[in-house]
């Protein structure tokens, strides 16, 4: 079977939901040839009486299954229909709930107000199969057996890098990865918890943002501006840097519909790199079972303080989390699930054609 995976420009989603799954499936020798490309080749036409161009034809490059990542435009809905008319099975891959992107998020205007979230849902509803990263997303995009959950996983080469817990730092680095522009309300759930921990461990700890700090000092009620490392676009380089820089990682999430659908990726990355983590009790973080749960500001303060002051315990827990990743959360563990999903999509398209014949 031939599968064509059509990616977006979003580096993280492309890496974890397209290029690395494709690599894992090919390396597992599951009888599937996979091609990964940015977008898909189309020919645009202007039909009589229509002011706007529309998709006249699409090139599936001989694929039996085409995977469309995060389709959210009228043109992509047209592409999906044209592919199916050719007998090609279409999988829609979704890893965020666009309709719940919060106000203040950088993508809110285009996704929610601009109608892209509705178009994404329309694409999912017409696909032969939908793949998602969480059970909550499955209920939103593909209820009643129309989709499959394939959880995020980490390539072995990342988890095999020297783990953070092997270091013995003089100053313990507490770190957060991300940009405030796409996490407008998440850091605030810690309230003063991080600042309390920094005060209790003064001279022993520091706080670092890998990404864009924005208004993080205000959101976290910090006495000082955090140190900042610029965002690294290459995901392998980013993952390596997390383990080389962080001793403790934080993963705060506000309890809202958007975050309830988000995957466990941030805590999984911390664990894979041997970084001790403290995280919010989101459904996916709880399901993953890695990291230490913080429900209230005092929990953040207590857990972070203890992790700084007790390096042996910090290393013990970080090592246990990394061992769990190596045992069950690598891309090689999810390869067959991706392959099964694509085969199911092919079967669904064949069945649909028979019913409509």
Automatic annotation (TrEMBL):
UniProt domain Spore protein YkvP/CgeB glycosyl transferase-like: residue ranges: 254-338
Signal peptide annotation: none
Keyword Ribosomal protein: no
Pfam families recorded: Glyco_trans_1_2
Superkingdom as given in the UniProt entry: Bacteria
Gene3D superfamilies per the UniProt record, alphabetical: Glycogen Phosphorylase B
GO molecular function: transferase activity
InterPro entries hit by this protein: YkvP/CgeB_Glyco_trans-like
Membrane-crossing residue ranges in chain numbering: none
Keywords associated with the record: Transferase
Name assigned to this protein: Glycosyltransferase family 4 protein
Organism, scientific name: Modestobacter muralis
């Amino acid at each position: 079977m031939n599968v064509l995976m059509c990616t977006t420009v979003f580096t993280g989603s492309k890496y974890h939901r397209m290029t690395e799954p494709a690599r894992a499936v090919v390396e597992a020798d599951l009888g599937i040839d996979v091609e990964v490309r940015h977008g898909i080749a189309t020919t645009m036409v202007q039909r009589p009486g229509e002011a706007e161009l529309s998709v006249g034809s699409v090139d599936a490059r001989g694929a039996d299954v085409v995977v469309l990542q995060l389709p959210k435009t009228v043109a992509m809905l047209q592409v999906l229909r044209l592919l199916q008319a050719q007998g090609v099975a279409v999988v829609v891959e979704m890893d965020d709930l666009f309709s719940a992107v919060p106000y203040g998020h950088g993508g809110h205007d285009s996704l929610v107000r601009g109608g892209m979230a509705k178009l994404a849902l329309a694409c999912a509803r017409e696909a032969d199969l939908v793949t998602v990263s969480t059970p909550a997303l499955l209920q939103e995009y593909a209820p009643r057996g129309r989709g499959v959950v394939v959880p995020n996983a980490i390539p072995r080469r990342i988890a095999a890098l020297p783990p953070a817990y092997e270091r013995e730092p003089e100053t313990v680095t507490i770190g957060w990865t991300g940009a405030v522009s796409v996490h407008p309300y998440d850091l605030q759930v810690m309230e003063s918890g991080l600042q309390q921990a920094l005060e209790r461990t003064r001279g022993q700890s520091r706080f670092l943002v890998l990404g864009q700090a924005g208004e993080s000092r205000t959101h976290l009620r910090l006495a000082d501006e955090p140190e900042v490392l610029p965002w690294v676009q290459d995901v392998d380089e980013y993952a390596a840097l997390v383990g080389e820089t962080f001793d403790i990682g934080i993963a705060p999430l506000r309890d809202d519909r958007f975050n309830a659908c988000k995957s466990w990726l941030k805590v999984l990355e911390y664990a894979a790199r041997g970084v001790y983590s403290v995280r919010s009790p989101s459904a996916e973080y709880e399901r993953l079972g890695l990291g230490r749960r913080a429900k209230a500001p005092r929990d953040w303060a207590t857990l972070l303080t203890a992790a700084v002051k007790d390096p042996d315990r910090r290393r013990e827990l970080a090592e246990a989390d990394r061992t769990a990743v190596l045992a069950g959360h690598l891309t090689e563990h999810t390869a067959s699930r991706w392959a099964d999903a694509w085969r199911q999509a092919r079967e669904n398209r064949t069945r649909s054609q028979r019913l409509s014949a």
